[in-house]
Specification:
The complex is a heterodimer of chains A (100) and B (227).
Chain A lengths: L8 H4 L10 H13 L4 H13 L1 H18 L8 H17 L4
Chain B lengths: L6 H10 L2 H12 L3 H22 L3 H18 L9 H19 L50 H16 L3 H12 L4 H8 L3 H26 L1
The chains are: A mainly alpha (100), B mainly alpha (227).
């Protein structure tokens, strides 16, 4: 859910406190965040927003889940005929090596 | 945990970069140990072929590129001194061969310029957020993401989810597909993707961001239909 409005944070929270991050901004800087390239001040805004926004926490978790899932995609191997011909090539190679 | 032929140790070594066991594997290859070669071929061919298909479009050509790579390994293994890891060497040979073939296929393998499909498309449709003039919460979710991140890895859903993801990936614009494939599927570090495609770090991140955002949206639609 949306956190408390913070539009005049500059005045009531001191000069060091940057504007609060909106969800729409968060979904655009999430990759910089996950890549560790988000500037420090924006990173703090990102974290502060996450602490109060379940919707964005779920969004970040979805991204992390997607990345994990992508990493576990399996690939199809080469054709058995290709594999056989490679193993034959290996034996030819081995038999042609004078030191083996 | 010793296993016959040291296969377990090799697998661990190649995953963790343990150079002692990797050294033993290289040694066995140089001595003409067929079990070592077979293990390597079976372990890496799927990944090599998938990588080849990033560069060349035809399955049979990718198959040939993988074959050429292994033959180059045989020619080069005697001189291989282990300055880079075996895995890095393998993927480098593959990438070079695949690029050569791609040029012959007249497919450009550089995309230092972002294509129109990589432009300003938002990660999430603006309709999902409150408008900028909303008095209370401008830019905050009006329709927050329906929660599915916890369910995604459940065994029952997994197979179908993987298929949805695989199709989604295939349908991404080529530049995005390439970056997501190398970074998230193959696990390359950002700087290697940049080097292989002459991409700036910033453009690499834009492509990764667009690609991931699209895939997330595809999974969201899939889980919404499923619910």
């Amino acid at each position: 859910m949306a956190p408390s409005p913070d539009t005049d944070s500059q005045t009531h929270m001191g000069d060091d406190t940057p504007n609060e991050m909106a969800c729409q901004e968060l979904v655009e800087v999430i990759t910089d965040y996950l890549e560790g390239t988000l500037p420090k001040s924006d990173r703090a805004r990102f974290d502060a927003h996450l602490a109060t926004c379940p919707g964005c926490r779920e969004y970040v978790e979805q991204m992390r889940a997607l990345i994990r899932l992508s990493g576990s995609l399996t690939a199809k191997s080469i054709e058995p005929a290709t594999r056989d011909s490679l193993l034959r090539a290996f034996r030819r190679w081995r038999d042609s090596q004078p030191n083996l | 945990m010793p296993v016959t032929n040291g296969r377990y140790e090799w697998a661990v070594a190649l995953r963790t970069g343990d150079r002692t066991s990797e050294g033993e594997l290289i040694d066995r290859l140089q001595r003409g140990d067929e079990a070592a070669f077979t293990w390597l071929v079976d372990t890496y061919s799927p990944s090599l072929k998938r990588l080849a298909l990033v560069f060349v479009s035809v399955d049979a050509v990718a198959e040939e590129v993988v074959q050429e790579t292994w033959l180059a390994v045989l020619t080069g293994i005697a001189r291989f001194e282990g300055r880079s890891s075996l895995k890095t060497w393998l993927f480098k040979i593959l990438t070079n061969r695949a690029k050569t073939r791609a040029v012959r296929e007249k497919r450009t393998v550089r995309f230092s310029e972002l294509g129109p499909e990589d432009g300003d498309e938002p990660a999430v449709s603006p309709e999902r957020f409150l408008p900028p003039d909303d008095p209370s919460f401008p830019g905050h979710w009006s329709t927050p993401p329906h929660p599915w991140s916890g369910a995604i890895e459940q065994a029952v859903l997994r197979r179908e989810t993987m298929e949805v993801l695989r199709r989604g990936l295939e349908n991404l614009p080529r530049s995005q597909r390439t970056v997501v494939m190398l970074r998230d599927v193959e696990g390359w570090p950002a700087h290697e993707v940049c080097a292989a495609f002459e991409l700036s770090e910033a453009n690499q991140r834009v492509l990764l961001h667009r690609g991931r955002s699209r895939l997330r949206a595809i999974l969201e639609t899939y889980f919404a239909e499923d619910a």
